[in-house]
Design brief:
Elements: H1 15-36, H2 41-68, H3 74-97, H4 104-133
Helix pairs in contact: 1-2, 1-4, 2-3
The structure holds fe (ii) ion (FE2).
Length: 134
Amino acid sequence: MAYFSLTEDLKVGNSFIDQDHQKLVDLVNQLHTAMAAGHGKDVLGKILAELIRYTREHFKREEDHMQRIAYPGYAAHKQDHDKLIREVVELQNKFNAGNGMLSVQVSTFLRNWLVNHIMKADKDLATAIKKMAA
Ligand SMILES: [Fe+2]
């Protein structure tokens, strides 16, 4: 049983968003598994870097889409994204400067953040996309 699964209730019903979220979930699982297996700084650092890179790419995709449809919730949604990126980059800086340990709280934090963000902000966005396409 994976640490984190994109269960049905976490799907927003938009294929590009759900596909991106699946990949994010996979990366959080990879990080969690590597931490649990006691992997060192190299392995954890690479997964963390890829997670940040992909998160930025995904946020940009959502933000570009919001702008294309002149989404009224754009500013608030982008603020959520920016805040998360700031927090994760800070975490990465601490990790890079430290002894290569990552606490399990990191994967818990990422999982909780994603669940909360998907359930509200991304579902609202998906609903707006659907309405506009109708
Ligand atoms: Fe989002």
